[in-house]
Amino acid sequence: MDLSMKWLSDYADISGLSADELCKGLTLSGSKVEKYTVEGAEISKVVVAKILDVKPHPDSDHLVITQVDAGTGEPVQIVTGAPNITAESVGALVPAALDGSTLPGGVKIKKGKLRGEASNGMLCSLGELGLTLHDFPYAIENGIFILQSEDGRELTPGMPIQDAIDLNDTTIEFEITPNRPDCLSVLGLARETHATFDCPLEIKEPVVKGIGGNAADELDVKIVNTDLCSRYMAAIVKNVKIEPSPLWMRQRLRACGVRPINNLVDITNFVMLEYGHPMHAFDIRFIEGNQIRIRNAEQGEKITTLDGVERALSPSNLVIADAKKPVAVAGVMGGEYSGIMDDTNTVVFEAACFDGASVRTTAKSLGMRTDSSARFEKGLDPRMCEGALKRACELVELLGCGEVVSGFIDCSSGVDTQKTAPFDPEWINRFLGTDIPESEMLSILEKLDMRVENGTVYAPAYRQDIEFKNDIAEEIARFHGYNNIPKTIIRGIAEGELTPMQKFTRKLSAAAVAAGAYEITTFSFVSPKSFDKIRLPEDSPLRKAVQITNPLGEDTSVMRTSLIPSMCEILSTNYNNRNESAFLYEIGNEYIVTDNELPDEPARIVFGAYGNKADFYTVKGAVQAVLDACGIAGVTYEPCTGEDDTFGDASAFHPGRCATVSANGVKIGILGELHPEVLENYGIGTRAYAAKFMIPEMFGCVVQPAYKPLPKFPAMTRDLAVVVDEDIPVAHLERALSQGVGKILENVKLFDVYQGAQIEKGKKSVAFSISMRSEEGTLTDEQADSAMKKALKKLAELGATIRE
Amino acid sequence: MKEQLEKILQNATKELEGISDLKAMEDLRIRFLGKKGELTAILKQMGGLSPEERPVMGQLANSVRSRIEQTIAEKTERLRKEAAAAKLAAEKIDVTLPGKEMPIGRAHPLNAVLAEVEEVFLGMGFDIVDGPEVETDHYCFEALNMPKSHPARDTQDTFYISDNVVLRTQTSSVQIRTMEQRKPPIRIISPGRVYRSDAVDATHSPLFHQIEGLVIDKGITLADLYGTLDMLMKKLYGKDTQIRLRPHHFPYTEPSAEVDLMCFNCGGKGCSMCKNEGYVELLGAGMVHPKVLERCGIDPEVYSGFAFGIGLERITMGRYGINDMRLLYENDMRFLGQF
Question: Shortest Cα distance from A427 to chain B (angstroms)?
Answer without folding.
Answer: 10
